[in-house]
Amino acid sequence: MHFTIHCLDKAGAVEQRLAHYDAHKAYLSSAPITMLVSGPLLAPDHETMIGSFFLVEADSQAQVEAFHNNDPFKKAAIWEKVSIHPFLKRVDNRAAT
């Protein structure tokens, strides 16, 4: 099943985000779920990071929540608001690899 994880940072969290970036990136590369798409959400200036987005594949929402709870960004309390939702993929225009 597919799930989205939408995370908004606490105000002024850019420096804290950067301080934990390497640990976050390493965690994502060893994730126990399949990471399909991920990256930072940006402010209207298209530069300032204000959150994170993940599209993942997992067996259950509980598995996604466990993954999220172990993320270094979560442990560092960077995110102020997090939403996890099941996602029904109807269109995927990415080229097959």
Summarize the structure.
This protein is an alpha+beta fold. The chain has helices at 14-19, 21-29, 61-69, 72-75, and strands spanning 2-9, 34-42, 49-57, 79-87.
Describe the structure.
- The chain is of the alpha+beta class.
- The protein has one domain (2-87): 2-Layer Sandwich (Alpha-Beta Plaits), CATH 3.30.70.
- The chain has 4 helices and 4 strands.
- The protein has helices at residues 14-19, 21-29, 61-69, 72-75; strands spanning 2-9, 34-42, 49-57, 79-87.
- The protein has a 4-stranded antiparallel β-sheet with strand order 2-3-1-4, with helices on one face.
- The radius of gyration is 14 Å and the shape is globular.
- The two termini are 20 Å apart.
- Residues 1-87 form the YCII-related domain.
- Belongs to the YciI family.
- This is YciI family protein.
- It holds the Pfam family YCII.
Chain-wise SSE layout:
Layout: E1 2-9, H1 14-19, H2 21-29, E2 34-42, E3 49-57, H3 61-69, H4 72-75, E4 79-87
Antiparallel strand pairs: 1-3, 1-4, 2-3
